[in-house]
């Protein structure tokens, strides 16, 4: 028997906010078990909706900052959780929210971020959160399965691309489990999956300039079928690519994060 059953309501789901609400207590239990909330935690939840994940977490943690954009969900959340000491609601856009402001409330405690994310904004949201990665212990997100596949893909895999390189540069990425459409109301058209992201406090490979790294990765993947020699024309020539111990005839999809960092560092060195 599921411990965490979501409550039913008459809320009209809004497509523009990606509102597919979890309806299966067993899946909610599984997500909470993966997160392993602890009494000292400073949790941040993006998109609580009708509190399917909020409810089981808020009873455990010390502080929970909840970010919701939909006006219609604000009053019900306030009424439901007003008496909970951990509860702090921010009626705002998670894409532009300054997560740094939360650090002053529990200064010794880094943030733990969770969310069944609105799928239409999941990539920009994760990139925004990476700006605060030194203050984040971990992130557990429900995303489209295809996006989790891309985030976690290894070089050479057909789903390995720019998102894989950028996320794996900043975090240890782990595919946890798949969640079918029937576990949401309304059901989305695709499978979903839970990913665990652990931001590196000491990155294994360090780009001298992260903007140059991001731009070079984008350029290297700009035309999927072309070789690095072609995609990086005007950026690095074949001799320079070889100097980084990379084959200029290879495609970007074959390169490790370490190789991208080497290429970006040489490019930055030559242009600064
Ligand atoms: N956590 C709930 C659940 O699992 O049932 C709801 C998840 S639903 C997929 C996404 C939630 O994010 C909705 O509540 C939606 O209103 C909210 N949302 C959408 N865009 C947002 C944004 N830019 N900032 C904050 N919340 C947003």
From TrEMBL:
Binding sites annotated in the UniProt record for S-adenosyl-L-methionine? 20, 22, 47, 68, 93, 116
All copies of the Ribosomal RNA adenine methylase transferase N-terminal domain together span: 27-201
Into which EC class is this enzyme placed?
transferase
What would be one Gene Ontology cellular-component term for the protein? cytosol
EC code? 2.1.1.182
Keyword Nucleus in record: no
Primary localisation category: cytoplasm
Assigned keywords, A-Z: Cytoplasm, Methyltransferase, RNA-binding, rRNA processing, S-adenosyl-L-methionine, Transferase
What InterPro entries is this protein classified in?
Answer: KsgA/Erm, rRNA_Ade_diMease-like_C, rRNA_Ade_methylase_Trfase_N, rRNA_adenine_dimethylase, SAM-dependent_MTases_sf
Where is this gene product found? Cytoplasm
Q: Which domain of life is it from?
A: Bacteria
Keyword Cell inner membrane in the entry? The reply is no
Q: Could you cite one Gene Ontology molecular function of this protein?
A: 16S rRNA (adenine(1518)-N(6)/adenine(1519)-N(6))-dimethyltransferase activity
Function (record text): Specifically dimethylates two adjacent adenosines (A1518 and A1519) in the loop of a conserved hairpin near the 3'-end of 16S rRNA in the 30S particle. May play a critical role in biogenesis of 30S subunits.
Q: Which family does it belong to?
A: Belongs to the class I-like SAM-binding methyltransferase superfamily. rRNA adenine N(6)-methyltransferase family. RsmA subfamily.
Protein name as annotated: Ribosomal RNA small subunit methyltransferase A
């Amino acid at each position: 028997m599921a411990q965490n059953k979501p409550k039913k309501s008459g809320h009209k789901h809004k497509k523009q906010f990606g509102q597919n609400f979890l309806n299966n207590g067993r899946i909610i239990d599984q997500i909470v078990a993966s997160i392993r909330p602890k009494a000292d935690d400073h949790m941040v939840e993006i998109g609580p909706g009708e509190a399917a994940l909020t409810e089981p977490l808020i009873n455990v943690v010390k502080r929970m900052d909840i970010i919701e954009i939909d006006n219609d969900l604000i009053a019900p959340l306030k009424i439901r959780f007003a008496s909970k000491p951990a509860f702090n609601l921010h009626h705002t856009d998670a894409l532009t929210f300054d997560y740094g402001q939360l650090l002053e409330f529990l200064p010794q405690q880094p943030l733990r971020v969770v969310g069944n994310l609105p799928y239409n904004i999941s990539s920009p949201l994760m990139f925004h959160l990476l700006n605060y990665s030194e203050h984040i212990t971990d992130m557990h997100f429900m995303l489209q399965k295809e996006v989790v596949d891309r985030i976690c893909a290894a070089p050479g895999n057909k789903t390995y691309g720019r998102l894989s390189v950028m996320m794996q540069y900043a975090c240890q990425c782990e595919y946890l489990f798949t969640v079918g459409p029937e576990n949401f109301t309304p059901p989305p058209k695709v499978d979903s999956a839970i990913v665990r992201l652990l931001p590196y406090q000491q990155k294994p490979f360090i780009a001298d300039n992260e903007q140059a790294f991001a731009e070079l990765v984008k350029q290297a993947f700009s035309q999927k079928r072309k070789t690095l020699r072609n995609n990086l024309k005007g950026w690095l020539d074949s001799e320079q690519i070889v100097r980084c111990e990379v084959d200029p005839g290879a495609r970007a999809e074959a390169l490790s994060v370490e190789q991208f960092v080497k290429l970006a560092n040489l490019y930055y060195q030559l242009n600064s």
